[in-house]
Structure formats: C-alpha cells, structure tokens
Known about the structure:
Elements: H1 5-34, H2 39-42, H3 45-63, E1 83-89, E2 92-97, E3 103-105, H4 111-118, H5 121-132, H6 134-151, E4 154-160, H7 166-172, E5 177-184, H8 187-196, E6 201-204, E7 216-222, H9 231-241, E8 242-253, H10 258-263, E9 277-278, H11 281-290, E10 293-299, H12 303-316, H13 323-332, H14 335-347, E11 353-360
Parallel strand pairs: 4-5, 4-7, 5-6, 7-8
Antiparallel strand pairs: 1-2, 2-3, 3-9, 8-11, 10-11
Helix pairs in contact: 3-4, 3-5, 6-7
The structure holds zinc ion (ZN).
The site of zinc ion has 9 residues, from loops.
Amino acid sequence: MIISGNCKNEKNKMLKKLTDTNNNKLKQIKSKFSKTIRFDEIHTNEKQLNLDRMMQLVNKDVKNIKNKNKRLTKCPICKNSNLIFFVKKFEFKMDKCQSCGLIFCNPYPSKKQIYYYYNSEMKKFENDFFIKSFENRLNIFYPRIEIIKKYRESGKILDIGSSIGVFLEALNRVEHNFRLTCCDIDKDSCDKLKNRYPKVEVINSDFINIEKKPNYDIITMWDTVEHIVDQNLLFDSVKQMLKKDGLFFFSTPNTDSFEWMIANTEHVQLLPPGHVNLLNIKSISTLLKNNGFSLKNHFTLNPSLDIDYVLKLKSKEKKSNVRQESYLLSLLSNNKFRADFESILKKHKKAGNILVIAQKN
Ligand SMILES: [Zn+2]
C-alpha cells in the first residue's frame, strides 16, 4: 500500500495519540495500584481525636448490660489452655493465647451488649469517618481487587460486611467480570447501598442467616472477621456458601506485625466489644485447617500505615525509655531508610493488616 506524505503524517499523529493515551491509561492504572497510603488519609483527624472518648462513653452503658458468658479456659481457636491476661480495655478483659497468639475478649461480650454497641452513637461516628475518608479508602481496595483477579477472572462474589460500600465502588471503577452481592447486618447501610447502586443485589442480614447453599465462587470480608465472636461458626458458614474450590478473601488486623510489636496493649485497634478477636497468621492457619480450608497465600500490603502509626504513637510520648526504640525511630525519620524498611515489612508479611486467600477443600 502506498501512503502519501500527508496520510503518513496523519497516521503517525494518530499512532502517537493512541500510544500517549495508552501510556496515560497505564500510568493511571499503575498509580492506582501502587499508591502509598498514609495514616492520616484514611483515619480522619476527627476520628483520631475522638475515638477514645466515644468508646469510653458508649462502653459506660455497655458495661451495665448483662453478660452471662463465662470466661473461657481454652483458646477458642487452637484449644490450648495456656491463656494469659493481655489487657483490660473499655471495661472488657482481653486474654492472649500463648500457643497461637489469638487476642480475644474473655469472656466474650453478650449479644445484647454487642447489639447496643452497634446501634449506639458509635455506629454513626464510625460511618461518618468512613464517608469522609471514602475516596482515600478506595486506594486500599484497588490492590485487593488486583489480587482477586489473579486467582479468578469472573464469577459470583458475596461481600459480607459491605458497610458503606467502599469495595463495591472500587470494583465499579475498574474493569471486571464479577457479579457482586453485598451483605450487611446494618439496615441503614443496606438502604443507602440500594439507593446508590440499584442494580446491585443487597442482603440486609447477619451472615448466619444467609442461605447455606454453595451459591458463590468467591466470598470477601474486608476488616470484618475481627468483629465476629464465633470464628469457627463464621468460617464454617462461609465454607457452606462457597461453591466447590471457592475462594475466601479476607483482611483483618495482623497482631504479628511491626505496629503491634511497638504498640502492644496500647494498640488503637483494641476496640471491644467491636473488635473481639485479633488474629495473626498462626491463628488464621489453625482456623482455616479446622474448618475445611487451605491457605493459598497471604499478604500485608500497606507497611506505610505501620510506620505512620508508630511515629504518631511515639511522638505523643515525652521520651522513649528504650534506647533501641529511640534509635529505630530516628532511623525511620530518614525517607530512604523508611522506604527500605517498608519493603522489608511487606516482603516478610509483618505489616499491621493481613490479606488472606483461602480455598474451600
Ligand atoms: Zn490459641
């Protein structure tokens, strides 16, 4: 084919435009999936200032509600009886299993206490800061979606604990071939989701009341597992709702991490009766094994949050009384050291939030 000079120019221009557009698209996608997330972006200032006060206020009333649950003498996950007192937080005692490392409310709060908590001002407070940090929180979900896509290209997903729908919105903003059903116990959150996304199926229910049939290829639970008292019941229910070889993706605080090693009993995520079970990869592996799952993989994706949180926590203290800790903190204020340290935490899976991929056996 003979192309005249003019045509050649036009063609080159078009090709360049196309390449530029593709490059820009690629850049946008890359920045979406590799963005460093900072603590202040996802935890509003208002939340950081008022969380403790709100928790104390609500738990004053929770304390007065009857709790007939007995203190457990064995770890609910690994059944070991070597439990030690960990911390008393907002009127709840928490123990730590010396074998699998699970930190849990002992005794667990009663159903009435939990109901009161989730229908108190705390829920509104929580939803408010979720709404205010909604756009920034999307950045946590893009890499999670990329990981899901590596395991499955299409299928039916059930998202348990959808809340205000950050996962749903993130999924809407990328290309995908999944069909999503959202589920949440909170009626108000479900009503809002139905209004905002009329085409999406929304189930307003406790996970325990969803039909126990193998209807889904994938079940997701984002930062929800730690809120559930009976972990075995949860994992068993999820298994029953998954199709053969179905996948369970969930994220939860990781107590075997840098930020937990430093913050320990002062960690901001010790939030009973909201957070009642705080896990790590050892307790998670036991849970999966005991409930018919195999662990496919796990990641800790956002080490920057660990470092921001630790620096924030330590800046409140007048002076660190441990020399090694002071030294580490001074090193972390060097950006190059910090970047290298973040890669190490990510590589060795020691950041404070863990993403687990499990498959039904
Ligand atoms: Zn245990």
